[in-house]
Specification:
The chain has 209 residues and is of the alpha+beta class. The protein is globular, with a radius of gyration of 23 Å.
């Protein structure tokens, strides 16, 4: 083999190794989509306007912001998004209950884990079975859309820019954009979910029994 040919083969080999290394780095550093997560917009186009006259509960409302949730004993103002989201969903379904009332009833009925996580099945217990929360086996746009069309209220979890999880109720849909009430939005706006996050990580369905 000539010296010139050996040199060309060495250069080609070096280029190949460099390309493989670049691919490996890209695979390791590319943003990952969490398993089971879906885009915060999508599915079929629907025209389901959000009611503007329903309750809009903020977790830091002075009426209950200092109340402690069950289990962890943390204040509602810091970790009360789930309670507010479920209370808004229940109100939309015709069962008026404030976050303060819901939290107190859940505490009385052991509705929280030791870490302060809501035990979803306890919602049915404290509402005398009138409001139930179902936990689906999967997460798809098709199920979200079907739930909205059938009068259910999806409560979804996404990750805020701060890295903390956050729960909000989906109260309507415009085209492929899901509309939400955010327990942290002091302006009490109906917002596009896609303006708040790229992905939905989890969902619970609040239904009227």
């Amino acid at each position: 083999m000539s010296r010139s040919l050996r040199k060309k083969l060495a250069i080609a080999s070096a280029i190949g190794l460099t390309s493989l290394a670049a691919v490996a780095i890209w695979i390791q550093t590319r943003p990952a989509t969490p398993t089971g997560s879906i885009s915060s917009s999508g599915g079929i186009s629907l025209d389901l306007p959000a009611a503007t006259d329903g309750a809009y509960y903020l977790q830091n409302d002075p009426q209950w912001g200092a109340d402690k949730i069950g289990g962890s004993g943390e204040p509602m103002a810091s970790v009360g998004c789930t309670i507010c989201a479920v209370a808004m969903a229940a109100e939309q379904l015709g069962y008026p209950i404030t976050p303060q009332q819901l939290n107190a009833s859940l505490i009385e009925n052991n509705g929280f884990t030791e870490r302060g996580w809501l035990i979803w099945s306890a919602v049915g217990k404290v509402t005398n079975g009138k409001i139930q929360v179902t936990v689906p086996r999967g997460l798809t746009h098709a199920e979200l859309d079907s739930a909205l069309q059938n009068g259910k209220v999806p409560v979804v979890r996404y990750t805020m820019p701060s890295g903390y999880p956050h729960w909000v109720p989906i109260v309507g849909k415009s085209g492929k954009e899901y509309l939400v009430k955010d327990p942290l939005d002091a302006e009490l706006k109906i917002s596009k979910l896609s303006d708040k996050a790229d992905l939905i990580h989890s969902v619970r369905y609040v239904i009227q029994d």
